[in-house]
Amino acid sequence: MFLTQTVPRQREIIEVVLRNGWDYMRSLLTGGKTDEPQLPTPAVLKNILVDLGPVYVKLGQLLSTRPDLLSAAYIEELSTLQDEVPPVPWSEVEVVIRKQLKGPLEETFRIVNHFPVAAGSIAQTHRATLHDGREVALKVQRPGIDTTIAQDIALIQGIADLVARTDFGQTYDIKSTAEEFTKALEAELDFTREAGYTDQLRRNLSQSRWYDPTQIVVAEIYWHLTTQKLLVMQWLDGVPLLSADLSINDNGQDLITKRKAVTTLLFRVFFQQLYIDGFFHADPHPGNLFYLTDGRVALLDCGMVGRLDPRTQQILTEMLLAIVDLDAQRCAQLTLQLSDSAQPVILSRLENDYERMLRKYYNVSLTEINFSQIIYEILQIARNNKIRLPSNMGLYAKTLANLEGVARTFNPEVNLFDEIKPLITDLFGRQLLGDSPLRSLLRTALDIKSLSLQSPRQIELLLDRVTSETLQWNLSLRGLDGVRRTMDDAANRLSFSILVGSLIMGAAIISNRATTSQLSYLSSVLFAAASLLGLWLIISILRSGRLR
Prior knowledge:
Family: Belongs to the protein kinase superfamily. ADCK protein kinase family.
Organism: Anabaena sphaerica FACHB-251
Radius of gyration: 35 Å
Low-confidence stretches: 33-37
Protein name: AarF/ABC1/UbiB kinase family protein
Helix content: 55-70%
GO molecular function, one term: kinase activity
Shape: elongated
Transmembrane segments: 494-515, 521-542
């Protein structure tokens, strides 16, 4: 059905692919296999997605968060995708705003700037002033974008259904990836979700023992004006962090100290999101990190967020320690713990892959190690070993990569190990003792008391079973079913051979001593039965193919 409904769009996609990637298409048509499709080069793929429009730019941005699916070259190229497009004229935007407001536009806002401060594929942002003087940002959904997205989503799902029938689609679970993308895209059309994410992030960051919460800002949401297509939030005066002039706020600190303070703040803010809160801003690229005029740092655009459950947080914390220790065996074990597939994995091969990867860091100073690059390489090794990891691992890796990239660009003198060492130490302390050490100590004491009371009785029962010979051992060894069946077959054939031999011998004895016609008849019957059983035995052996 989707193929007939989207024929014009299909024609446009084919034209774009041929225009940008004719060499790729020619090689695919002449030498490619239908069940083993190969992607075009990273640059060609990026050009195709840009020409196809905003929905496919969003698809590229999503794929840039999946290093478990794509190699580092594709991740790096797709990470540069920006969905900036020409702005929609104010006359069209005004219609959308008036439909979303409960009252007249003039009674809600005193001033609205008709020229957008930013324009993206889904929405564009205008600056406005409420009648009480508060400055706000209006994020307005582009007119008609929901219809365009619905058509492209139907087409993407249809293509994913076709690709899912190939070995490639099954190996990389293309259908689930398409479903994940379409859900993320549909969620972006509902600005109330982004508003909820923004509120939750602001609440989470409002308290911490790692940093001063007053130094980090997340915009306040004006819920009485916010709808699915209009997001109204606090206006924050500032500039992107990498273009900030830190000398504006002269508080007696030199520029090096200021830069160090900002990078320390960012690391601690994001480490709290990742390893304590389990809810994190998943797109900290330079445009979403602002340096405000009052010297504080702001996080913008909370449309893309990630979540980590406590078990995953603990595994990832141990993974950081394994990376610092260059422990390949532990990295392999933790990767398998993260895996959400039951497909068998050759552990020795996985450990060898990690050993080769980590070996190049043996003589490198910890201050020079690129942690996000190592995490990308870990996900790449998992992909090569066909280990399917949860999709949030891609968001986690991309968040760390963006954060580390911004930190190194903003402050080239940053010592990454010094920044994360006290945080990892505190994280392990939290995991061992919890937020309340006294409560954890009391709980442990109760567990030890319970164990001490139960142990003598359990030991007594064990000894009683051993001495009374009632102890039973249940062993489960893999691969024994085949051995058992083979032994059963061999025993059955041996029994049939003995039976056939016995019938032949019995028939021969009766035949030699036969004095009546009845005994001769019995001898013939026994010979016939022995011949049939022997023939059946020979046929079964030949059919099994195990003559030798």
